[in-house]
Structures are given as structure tokens and as C-alpha cells.
Amino acid sequence: MVDRSIYHRPVMTEQVVDLLRPSLRMGVTVDATFGGGGHTRALLAADRKARVLAIDRDPDAAAQAAGLGKRLMFRAADFRRLDAVLEEEEIDEIAGAVFDLGVSSHQLDVGERGFSYHQRGPLDMRMGPDAPLDAEAIVNTWDRDRLAGTFRRYGEEHHAGRIADAIVAARPIADTAELAAVVADAVPARARRTGHPARRTFQAVRIAVNDELGALAEGLDIALRMLRPGGRLVVISYHSLEDRIVKRRFASGSRGCVCPPDLPVCGCGRTAGLVLLTRKALTPGLDEVAANPRSRSARLRAVARSTE
Ligand SMILES: C[S@@+](CC[C@H](N)C(=O)[O-])C[C@H]1O[C@@H](n2cnc3c(N)ncnc32)[C@H](O)[C@@H]1O
């Protein structure tokens, strides 16, 4: 039997369920990042009428959906194709959605997937076989400036230039252990004191391989477009780049009239389509972080589609 607690321990499940509970009977709820299915399982358990369409880009997740019953449909797909999946399933609006971004513990823990700087594995990092790029292409073929820009933008890495120089000098880099060692040697000693020195570089390569920020912006837009009045959307992100996209999208959708304040009557006709359910991002409690340290960077934001 598969041990699901090892595949992935879900983050902020109680908050996800509490926020989505009011919309669970309104129609289908989408779990856009099924992973080990922890959130899906909790949503199905929260209401016996809940129905979930679960999606994951990683075909490994499919096995976790087995035996969850008829109220669950699973599709191995990228959530940026959510509109096509909904059309194929003949669903024309959704009651709710949850996006729990990033990688699963399963992806991090299986060395052969190439996500881990702790294990020797191939330079892969693709979440699913559909990704057109892998880590090997980035690490061994991109030029120095493109590498440095990627580490700076997606890893918020202060030593991006030094790391890019070291990678170009060490080519060809054979695997993740070699990449982690090259990065560790490239950064100054003081940078090795705050966590693993290759953490930011690996994060940047992973985001680039899977075009994670592009997928998030597209997937979020589709989910918001398909959300029925009163429907709810919850997003959990794990770094500031993702959280910024979510925060801005929710803020722009919840802003009504954008006319200058001195205009006597509204000329723009804009009404707020979204209602913020979380003014500030929610974070996991101390107990959850103690029990599951991987939850520590989680930031949860939620909105509802206005009923007016
Ligand atoms: C943090 S895990 C989700 C864990 C899940 N909520 C649970 O309770 O087990 C993130 C999952 O999202 C998937 N994923 C990431 N980007 C995706 C995308 N663009 N489309 C579909 N799935 C994606 C990953 O493959 C991974 O399995």
C-alpha cells in the first residue's frame, strides 16, 4: 500500500477547507495542484456533496487519486490548460478552486527527479513530461548573463554573477550533486551560514524549467474567469515571486471604480468582480510549522466572486 503521508503532507488544510466550505455545494471545486491529494481528501470529507476535479502536471500524482471514489475526477494536466480540461469535462463554471503551488515532497525526495540539492540525480527538474526544457539544458547551455539573470530574478540570489561564472567554468556539469558543489564553492563563506548555499539557484532553475510564474498567471486568470458568483478561490504560495502575482491579481480584481476622486460621477463603470476573503496573507500556525517545517514559507490568500 502507498504511504500517502510520505508522498506529501498537505499545508494549511484547515484554512483551505474553512474558506472553501461555503462554495462546496455550488458545483465542482478544482484542486489545481493535486500532489498527494491531501487537500482534495479534506474537501471531499468536509461535505458529502462536494465534487472535485483534480489536476496535476506530474503523472506520478495519478496513483494518489486511486480509490477516492466517484466524487473525484483526476486529470494529468498543466493548470494553464484548465479551460481545455473543463471544456473536455463539459464543465462551464466552477464553484471553487485551490492552487497549492510549488513542488510536492515526493518530487523533492525522489533523487531521480533532479529537484534536490541534497541528493545526486540527473539535471531534470521537470514537473511533468510536457515541459519543453530541463535543468541540463539551462545549466550546460545558457550563456553566463542569461544564467545570472535567471538566478537573480527567480532565486533572488545576491551572488548570481559569481555563481553563473562558476557554472560556465565547470561545464559540462553532470548532475545535481555536482551543481550543488559548484554553487557552494562559488558563494562567499558568509552566504553558507543561512541555509544551503544552492537553495536559491535550484529554486531559480526549477522555476525556469517549469515556467512556474507564467503558468501561475495564466492558471489564475482562467480559474477566476470560470468562477461562478459566490465561488471561492484559495492560493497557497511559497515564495515572494508567486505571492506578488497572486496579491496583485486579487487586488486588481477587487478594485471597483478607478475614476479620479474629484470626478462627481463614475465614468469608468467598473465594479469589483472579486471580494477579498483575506486582507493580509494567512500563514501557518507555530504548531504546523513545528510538525511540518516545509510549511514555514506558506502564504495563503483567498477571494470570492462577487454575487452582484
Ligand atoms: C505543493 S504540491 C501540492 C500538494 C497537495 N495540495 C497535497 O495536499 O498533497 C504542488 C503540486 O502541484 C503540481 N504543479 C505545479 N505546477 C503545476 C501546474 N502548472 N499544473 C499542474 N500541476 C502543477 C506539482 O506537480 C505538485 O504535485
Task: Note down, in words, how this protein is organized.
- With 308 residues, the chain is α/β, with parallel strands linked by helices.
- The chain has 13 helices and 7 strands.
- The chain has a 7-stranded mixed β-sheet, sandwiched between helices.
- Strand 1 (28-31), helix 3 (38-46) and strand 2 form a beta-alpha-beta unit.
- Helix 2 (13-20) crosses helix 3 (38-46).
- The longest helix is centred in the last third of the chain and has 15 residues, at 212-226.
- The chain is globular.
- The protein starts with a helix and ends with a strand.
- Bound molecules: S-adenosylmethionine.
- Residues 8, 10, 33, 35-39, 55-58, 61, 78-80, 100, 102-104, 127, 215 line the site of S-adenosylmethionine.
Overall mean confidence score, pLDDT: 94
* Overall number of domains: 2
| CATH architecture annotation name of the largest domain | 3-Layer(aba) Sandwich
Percent of residues in helices comes to 25-40%
Give the uncertain stretches in residue-range form. Answer: none
Shape: globular
Reported for the largest beta sheet, the result is:
7 strands, mixed
Radius of gyration, Cα only, in angstroms?
21 Å
Q: Would you state the CATH class of the largest domain?
A: Alpha Beta
Q: What's the N-to-C terminus distance?
A: 48 Å
Order of helices and strands: HHEHEEHEHHHHHHHEHEHE
Fraction in beta strands: 5-15%
Physical arrangement of strands within the biggest beta sheet: 3-2-1-4-5-7-6
Classification by helices and strands: alpha/beta
How many extended strands? 7
- Heteromolecules bound: S-adenosylmethionine
CATH superfamily of the largest domain: Vaccinia Virus protein VP39
Number of helices in the DSSP assignment: 13
CATH topology of the largest domain: Rossmann fold
